[in-house]
Design a protein that fits this description.
Order of helices and strands of chain A: HHHHEEEEHEH
Number of domains of chain A: 1
Strand content of chain A: 15-25%
Structural class of chain A: alpha+beta
Helix content of chain A: 40-55%
CATH class of chain A: Mainly Alpha
Oligomer: homodimer
Bound molecules: zinc ion
Shape of chain A: globular
DNA sequence: CTGAATTTGCAACATTATAACATTCGCAGA
DNA sequence: TCTGCGAATGTTATAATGTTGCAAATTCAG
């Protein structure tokens, strides 16, 4: 679980993928969960980029590889992967992305570029803290947090200076 | 734009609704926007409770009143209402809720009870600040924030002590 | 009144997600 | 090795959510 490259910058993405797959295998092993071929392949497809990918995009990719699957196959694999914290669902996009902090207990905050489509997952203590404190002031017991920030990543700001 | 009652507690909800409708009329007037019959009725339906309501639920409600509408009617009204900050979309529920801070420039944070379904909108400066600071550390220019916390509201905690 | 712009009606369609049930697979114990 | 059980997958159909495109109606300024 080492530090990850910034998705926006060119980087050795194969390293991202192999790290993620290694983490996944370790986590499943550790929990006695079965990372089957389909599940593993779905995870790899999700990790093919740092852009959140729709379930039907995953399905299409599987189909293009000759694995003719139906929606439930993909959704079930995604459910499994979410359960073990290997992927996150991005509610504002109805899409899924590989977790950059698998194995660590965390609440992801996503910075999603509306221009290039890449998403960066952060875990910022000060943010989590502020959120839980705010919930506490209402005597609300928070269980899960969805935090998705849309905007422009550094690269795309440079390309379209203002608007 | 006075203070609002807590949605969880019994309260004079008619007052919530009439306040919201009055705010809506004022805001539309102020912007030269037309709060037509359909739009007004959709807003009222959304405000019928503090539980986020699906677009098709609104549609059904309209239908039950004899107004036979199709999905685009509802979605268009909702788009309009969102544009003027009168309702928010809850991405994690595919549902809509009346804005409790219409007219104020704000980013809502929602506390959604998974038990009773009520949602409370907060605007907490410390949270917004932490989020924007976190985004800044990545040189990310944030434009919109979705923050939805799911958990148990005070009432429902009392009813199901632990789990 | 007239014409342009906004709003609504309507039909079809696209996308995302789930239900229900049959079949196959992996693995542990006989 | 065989057998049986539970987990996983395949398959079909369907539900739920959201959109496109175009025609008709409404509103409002001039
Ligand atoms: Zn990468
Ligand atoms: Zn994560
Ligand atoms: Zn109320
Ligand atoms: Zn609001």
């Amino acid at each position: 679980m080492s530090a990850r490259a910034l998705p926006y910058r060119p980087h050795d993405h194969d390293a991202c993928v192999s790290q993620a797959m290694a983490d996944a295998r370790a986590i499943c092993q550790q929990h006695g969960a079965r990372l089957t071929t389909t599940r593993e392949r779905v995870l790899e497809i999700i990790w093919q980029s740092h852009k959140p990918l729709g379930a039907y995009d995953v399905l299409a990719k599987l189909a293009s590889e000759g694995h003719s699957a139906a929606p439930p196959t993909v959704y079930r694999a995604l459910d499994f992967l979410q359960q073990y914290g290997l992927v996150h669902r991005i509610a504002s996009l109805n899409a899924f992305i590989g977790c950059a902090h698998a194995g660590e207990l965390h609440t992801g905050m996503f910075l999603i570029c509306r221009c290039c489509g890449n998403a960066l997952e952060l875990t910022t203590t000060s943010v989590s803290k502020a959120i839980h404190e705010a919930a506490s002031t209402q005597a609300f017991r928070s269980e899960s947090v969805i935090l998705e920030v849309t905007g422009l990543c550094p690269n795309c700001q440079a390309e379209q200076p203002d608007e």
